[in-house]
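hiii so my PI (J.) wants the whole complex modelled not just the main chain, which honestly fair. so below is everything: two entries, each one labled with what it is. i double checked the lines twice but i was tired so who knows lol
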Amino acid sequence: MAFVTANWNPLGESFYRKIELYEMGWNLKDGLRECLVAAAPYGGPIALLKGHYRRSPSARPQLEIYSSSGLPLASFPWKSGVVKQLGWTVSDDLLCVQEDGTVLVYDLWGGFKRHFSMGNEVSQSQVLETKIFHSPYGTGVAILTGALRFTLATNIDDIKLRRLPEVPGLQEAPSCWAVLTQDRQSKVLVANGSQLFILDNTACTPVTPPGLSPQASSIVHMCVSFSYKYLALLTDSGHVWMGTSNLKEKLSEVDTKIKTPPKQMAWCRRPKSQQPSAVVMWDGLLIVVGECKETIQYHLDDDSVLVPELDGVRIISGTHHELLQEVPGACEEIFKIASMAPGALLLEAHKEYEKESQKADEYLREIKEQSLLSEAVRQCVEAAGHEHEPETQKTLLRAASFGKCFLSNFPPEQFVSMCRDLRVLNAVRDYTVGIPLTHTQFKQMTVQVLIDRLVYRKLYPLAIEVCRYLKTPEYQGVSRVLKHWACYKVQQKEESDEVIAKAVSVKLADAAGISYSEIATKAYESGRTELAIKLLEFEPRSGEQVPLLLKMKKSPLALSKAIESGDTDLVYTVVMYLKNELNRGDFFMMLRNQPVALSLYKQFCKHQEQDTLKDLFNQDDDHEELGNFYVKASYKDQRLEARVALLQSAVDEYYKAKNDFSAKTTEDEMRLLRFQRKLEEEKGEQLVGFSLHDTMTTLLSVGLHKHAEQLYKDFRVPDKRFWWLKLKALAEKEDWEELEKFGKTKKSPVGYLPFVEVCIKHHNKYEAKKYVSKVTPEQKVKAHLAVGDMEGAAEAAIERRNESEISTVLSRCSATTDHLLMERLNRAKATAVKK
Amino acid sequence: MASHLFCGRVNLNILREAARKDLREFLDKCSGSKAIVWDEYLTGPFGLIAQYSLLKEHEVEKMFTLKGGRIPSAAVKNIVFFVRPRLELMDIIAENVASEDKLHPRDFHILFVPRRSLLCEQRLKEKGVLNSFTNIDEYILDLIPYDGDLLSMESESSFRECYLESDQTSLYHAAKGLMTLQALYGTIPQIFGKGECARHVANMMLRMKREFAGSHTQILPVFDTLLLLDRNVDLLTPLATQLTYEGLIDEIFSITNGYVKLPPEKFAQKKQGEGGKDLPTEPKKLQLNSAEELYAEIRDKNFNAVGAALSKKAKVISAAFEERHNAKTVGEIKQFVSQLPHMQAARSSLANHTSIAELIKDITTSEDFFDSLTVEQEFMTGVDTDKVSTYIEDCVAQKDPLIKILRLVCMQSVCNNGLKQKVLDFYKREILQTYGYKHILTLKNLEKVGLLKPQSTMRNNYPTIRKTLKLWMEDTNEQNPNDISYVYSGYAPLSVRLTQVLARPGWRSIEEVLKMLPGPHFEERQQVPTGLHKKRQPGENRTTLVFFLGGVTYAEIAALRFLSNMEDSGTEYIIATTKLINGTSWIKSLMDSPEENLP
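here's the output for the full assembly
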């Protein structure tokens, strides 16, 4: 414990520390010399292209991929073109940018994934330099071509190439350049001698860093901070200028007193840093510069590479892997020599307590008197998060836990989650895993991404343990890991289908929300159709099974699964697919066995393919529907002959369907149509398409009584209806004479009240009265009332001694004119009630 | 704005808010100014979710109706199609996109309601326009909150699709809707059902539940029971003329998406200063829901009790206005004034409903209405259902509206469990001769769904059903009802009786009758995560969701509300349906008119 500060170096107000992360597990003969190196941020993998600089045609370079602790992940001879640059994407894929602008993408295990080109212009003028950068939009590639132009792709997963404007006065390769992300746009910052330019999509703007010392004649190196907020420039006079990347503010300027160009420069800051600082590396020397004149110098034994991180810089050499960072505030407070910060006192108190010394109480009192105990606990917890050594973490957490005992109402979440986080971090930092994440990085990258990375490294058991331990919801946690595991498992060629299917189903049995179809897809893609089908059986969502089954040409199964899902759109999709795949006979046959699909397809045909519909009915010998089909078709044709012909087909079908009623009525319709046509031709009266009823009405209204009578007889129209029809038609025409004649032809089957009513309806009281006497006794009152004969109505009602009728008449009487009548009615009503 | 959704036992506004959130998110996805091109059918249902103001907030500047040709010019960045997934609509969209002005290209988006469809996307692809769309998305709008206790899918043709065309798409949407509902209101522990479609929906629900295993909703179940009912279990009820206030408004003026259009004459407002100006010619459009206090009070009453309720209300309101004479102190006057807006709203609401009631009364007191109702009631009580009805005969002879005839004939057939072949053929011939041969297809449709049928050898079981379920009550009290039969002045809707019996004493008591009705009846249980079991307080009511597959009438809803409000019922009902229907709209949806398809 006493040595926590042993590796601290002061710089201005704050301290810097260099922690050893790993002794590298690799065995590199020549260290990193003559290697092209790329290490992914967030403790990601390291790629080396060995023998890259030996341009002898006989020796192929070797591409090797290692974990951060130097454990080999992949190694293979490089057979493609000359690589200019290596880099990692945000999802841990390796990008190899070739001289001709082709970018090859490999996975962590050296498996080739895909390639893409940076465009014609790049391939013609060749790549001069390239940079791979990360932004909120993903991983991007920036290229400086032999023609001294920049080409940029902001997101390699959605490539949109942008060619940036020309830099004025650029005769040779610029002394240095960097990619910036500002205002949601990626820009390039270029130094040409002492001139600086910002290139965006449209323009090239010269800029000047405020307060850059004038002795510099050229900017030889530049770097942008992890967050793109800060910029550092190194001039040929050996000065490091630090400022904001928008070039509005200068933070500091320090003279390194070294004028040779450095190998690499990187920002070394952390969120809530106390001062801006950068690291510059030359052969064998590393300098940390900050705000003050002094610098920290480290000696390097070996060729090294700097990997900028969110909260520091990692230094990878042929033998070691170290982290250089500003000492976090909480750690400084606690461990600084002679610190009286509450955290430091609490740590001390706990130490004394362990020794069973009463001094513990004194320290505690001191903190409590200032009521800083909760602050002390918080400091210890926070500091524990920033410490790399588990022993130190434990000591700090124990102290925090000790302090917590003397606090009531101290929220436990921070302590608990820190313990959990550290346990996970220590596990992934382990040499065998080799992901040296700091707590700050872990919080930034989230558990989700960490689990993804573990899965990507095929560390399934660890990933599952992490999920369980952190209680990640099953959906996003364990189930997801298991799915990835299964996808990997199904690609193992050496095991039999049965064994794999069983293994997968056993492991995944209890996991919720597993998409078996995804796993099956993987199996199918690696050529194992049988296994895929077996796996699909486990998929609970039948809808999900369908697309793959179709792809595997298991159409009957796909169809029944689609039907099972109840999703009609899915059924349609399969049906349409089958329609294109199969010949018509097979297609119909298959539908026949699936009534749900068949009726849906019929619906489709009804709207889209009438002819197919007919074929379907034909196939099923569905004469009834065929009949209906012809009936419908008959209305689509304007020509009478065609209509009648179609109706005849309908009649035939209806007979075949043993539907005599439909057949007969259809025949009637044909007869009617012919009749209408004939009459239209003879009399010029528009008739075709009318109903029988309307035809007769029309005929009567134009006086063609004979023809109407003929229809009445031919079509066996019921008397009642014909009478109604005729008397209404005559009244409409106001042909009262004819009406009277009609009324006398025989006894009316509808009675005579309708006569009265139609007359009144056409305001002819005179005619109406003629029929009142003929009305049956039951309807007399109504008839009298209809023609407005109150006396008659009263007479009839009294005669019938019907109480309700009397009341009806009474309600129609007016008190002033029908006084006497009302008296009579009232008397009659009284007697009627008595009875 | 959506106050009517809060008032029920279950806060349906959660559902509406969820729907609104999705809509906003989609609109924001198409950044910049936009014009919406509407599938006209959707505007009504959408009105229940969001008004124009919401769209406007999200930069919707123009709205068009989907039709062929070129979309009218509008200086907007985006064109958004809101459509149902129908092939014929895809063809129109393709035409729209193809004829777009190439010089001023706009971004296209499609929002499928209620679900995106591979079939439609395929069609767009075939037409070569699929890549023109920046966003293709779906807007899951299955169950739309219609009122405080009412959800509707507003799916016009679902009965026709399910029973006539064997297309169960709407059932899939119903099941999906129920899943959404359960995601918001907790798993429903008990499911009962009657009918083929009910069975199908329940099966899909159980399957979907399995599919989503693992994503348990940790929500205390709001609903205790779900009852799924096929419309074809009770074909009779919608055929009968509804006699509640709301039911009659629907029968006479038809309520669409919560709005009714009324003849303007009665609503001519006599404003001071411009009195006597010409009458408005536009129909008066009124929104009808429980947000209106008076309407909530009278909507479910038998129409014969509405007059009394209105006059009572009138007295209360005028008494309230008289208060002003008693207001002496400044404080009292202030209080009176503060109540004025509320009182004025109540007065105008009263005026509206008095006018509506008058309009209805003109019809209900007519002889025609009376005669037809008498015949309906005779059928329902089983009088002379086995022979040709002279009333129907006369109506046909006078060529009364066809739908009226079809309603009556179907009713007779249902009440007689099929008609004698001779009787059936007579009616059919009469209809074809009078209204035209083209209706042969409609008649076939009615036969296919079972509304019309020839008598089979089996005994007519309607009387047994009627007696066991007490479908006809002789002494119905319309003013102060004590039984659901008041909604049809004597007839107690079968569907609601089934619901009532299920709650108490349970379906076991009516096994025999259930067997007579079509389709299986069933019960399913869904596991509720431990810890979410409801602990019922003594006296706390159960909540049952009744889902009518194929439509529900306002009178049935009224009957269920009556049951909810009965003191000792112990159950409160929330109603869900594919569509609010009445006999007329229902029959209309089953009609086929071949002439309309003429090119």
